[in-house]
Design goal:
Blueprint lengths: L11 E3 L1 H8 L3 H9 L6 E3 L2 E5 H18 L1
Helix pairs in contact: 1-2
Length: 70
C-alpha cells in the first residue's frame, strides 16, 4: 500500500530543540523566529514541528535572497 502523502522517512522534526539543533540556533531563537512567521514551522498536536526538506528549501531561498541583496 502506498502512502497518500509526501512524507519521507526521517523528514519530520518534532520539538523546538530538534528543529533548533538542525538550524544551528537555540530553542529561544527558534521560538522568536516562528512567532514572527520567519521560519516554516507548524503545530502538530501541542508540539512545534517542521520538515527537513522544507527547512532546506527555505534556507536555500534565504541564501539566494541575501546574495541578491548584497
Amino acid at each position: 500500500m502506498e502512502a497518500a502523502n509526501d512524507n519521507q522517512p526521517g523528514d519530520l522534526l518534532m520539538g523546538a530543540g530538534t528543529i533548533a539543533k538542525h538550524l544551528g540556533i537555540t530553542s529561544r531563537q527558534l521560538y522568536r523566529l516562528s512567532y514572527g512567521g520567519h521560519v516554516p514551522v507548524f503545530k502538530l498536536g501541542g508540539a512545534i514541528a517542521a520538515r527537513r526538506s522544507t527547512l532546506t528549501r527555505w534556507l536555500d531561498q534565504q541564501e539566494t535572497s541575501a546574495m541578491r541583496a548584497a
